[in-house]
Amino acid sequence: FLMQTSEMLRKICIRNLVRKYCRGLTAERKVQLQQKVVTSAVFSGKKEGYLQSLSQPFLETRLKENDLNPKVLQLIRGENIKYVTPVIKYDRNGFKARERLLVLTQSSAYVVEVAKIKQKIEYSTLKGISTSNLSDGIVVIHVPEDNKQKGDVILQCEHIFETVTKLCMLANKQSLVKVVKGSLRFRVGSGKEGTMVFTVGPEPQVFKDKTGQLTVV
Questions:
Q1: Which ranges carry the TH1 domain (predicted)?
Q2: How far apart are CA 5 and CA 31, in angstroms?
């Protein structure tokens, strides 16, 4: 009987401590924990660099709304901007690297070039999000095959765990994130596909190899 009473009191004590901790959390801290739980579910044990990212808090955004060009703000007016970060976008054909911004709103992802919107992806149409298992910052946003889309979006992000977590949470499509090994296929447009190969080397680089594939080292 004493053992049962002791165990019952221990459970009550733990429950009270948890309740006290949860009530003491700030709204910002709650958001951080929610995001980190999703990051863990998506990347834990799958992608290099995940453990090192645990101690790094996610920022609400990397750039503020007023850092965006007024023309862009006008084009996406009415949408609640949630996250903005600088990215490198690779062309689907020649794989030329171009500086862009990734703007995530409540309903869509935008690839922005200064004052132009280069591509809009509504979350409802999102087909998948792919990253490699290595320590690179490449993410591929897979889009449907229709006339509205030029093809899948190939981006390089400095804060890959943060960016992918924000994207899949806003889109409510955590289950569509895939961490791949070796290579992945992406849609170039007009029914064509390309291949991206992931490998390990002495220094990080992204280039088009002799076979025409995009190689990420």
A1: 47-217
A2: 37
Over residues 65-93, the mean pLDDT reads: 93
In a domain, 66, yes or no: yes
- Tell me the β-bridge partners of 121: 109
Residue 38 maps to a domain: yes
Q: Domain containing 98 — which CATH number?
A: 2.30.29.30
Distance, CA of 116 to CA of 133 (rounded, Å): 32
Question: Across the chain, where does the E strand assignment appear?
Answer: 81-90, 97-105, 108-113, 116-122, 128-132, 138-142, 153-156, 177-180, 183-189, 192-198, 206-208, 214-216
Choice among 14-28, 179-193, 196-210 with the minimum mean pLDDT: 14-28
Neighbours of 124 (CB within 10 A): 10
Query: How far is the C-alpha of 159 from the C-alpha of 51, rounded, in Å?
Result: 14
For residue 177, the model assigns a pLDDT of 97
Any domain includes 45: yes
Residue 166 CB neighbours (<10 A): 24
In 85-175, where does DSSP find H-type helix? Answer: 160-171
Question: What does the pLDDT read at residue 104?
Answer: 98
Among all chains, which residue has been given the structure tokens 């889009």?
Answer: 143
Mean pLDDT over 194-205 rounds to 92
179 burial level (CB within 10 Å; 0-12, 13-18, 19+): middle
